[in-house]
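#struct-pred
JK: can someone run the complex with zinc ion? inputs below
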Amino acid sequence: MANVGISIRIFYFLAFCSRNAADESSLVLWLILPILYLRPMEQLAAQIENYKKEVLAFTPQNAEEVEQFRIKYLGSKGLVKNLMAEMKNVPAEQKREAGQLLNEFKTLVENHFESFSSLQQNNHHSTQQIDITLPGNDIAIGSLHPLSIVRNKIIQIFQRLGFAVAEGPEIEDDWHNFGAMNLPEDHPARDMQDTFYINQNPAWLLRTHTSSVQARVMEQQKPPIRVICPGRVYRNETISARAHCFFHQVEGLYVDENVSFADLKQTLYFFVQEMFGHGTKIRFRPSYFPFTEPSAEMDISCLICGGKGCNVCKHTGWVEILGSGMVHPKVLENFNIDSNKYTGFAFGMGMERICQLKYRVNDLRLYSQNDVRFLQQFTAAL
Ligand SMILES: [Zn+2]
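RT: done, structure tokens with the ligand placed:
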């Protein structure tokens, strides 16, 4: 290849020297020089080298381009044929070397063409080549998140008792989250529900419970009210296996004339039987919540040991699942509901807690880590 370069340079040098000469001898020199300095073998080698680069850079997008490539290089008037024809100009002693170069080039073009032929075939015969008797490829369909499974189940159970689903904003104002729920600003119970506040307005916060939805329902609806409020809530907590800065709750509210604690007990008893299986026992322990009076925590008999005592129930035979009580008259009055005429009950449970008991998940963080190995275990529940 170096020879070709030198020949070209000498040719142009001579051409430059004679460019102003008008005599016949310089004209002859013009005509003869290319033949003298660009000998057929070198010309051929240079051409092949250029074509090689062109071929290797070619990446077709469709069958049409592949066909154009074939015509250009391998067709009856293609470049490979043309180059073969030029063999006759190569001196006899160089024919062997030239032949080798040409064959290598031909093989390169053919292999390159072959690598795209599948693209060409697929496009040409796509309809004929589908074998509809072959089994299809599996498509991963995913599965419901365990919390979604539990939420859906809870909604299903309470809907059968006539409860509607209510939803509200996650960014709340102080009144709906605390004030209306009988948690005035200086109330010590607020300390247990530290949350995240919004910079633009210090009265805005991320709701600490779904009670704020109860407030919004009572604001807009008159009794009878029968709703459950599933949703995400927030607390300013250090993340650990037992605590998280966000989790999920379902609260229920029933306000009507003559609603009693017996209705509360019966409703929750029905829920537990449906959720955890018939024969699951319940018990109530007195408790305190600012928005209910009287208030009670509800336990169910341990699902693992059946009440005999194990690590999960801390050897008591009971596990706590929710808080409940009769709606505090002050809460009803906050929404202009006559507390002498109407009474109501409310309850609230953590969805993660129900999930933990149902699926034996002992680390809260697993629910939001998006680890497929964890989530895949719930596929069967779809
Ligand atoms: Zn137990």
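RT: quick notes.
The first strand starts at residue 164 and ends at 165.
The mean pLDDT is 84.
JK: thanks, will look after standup
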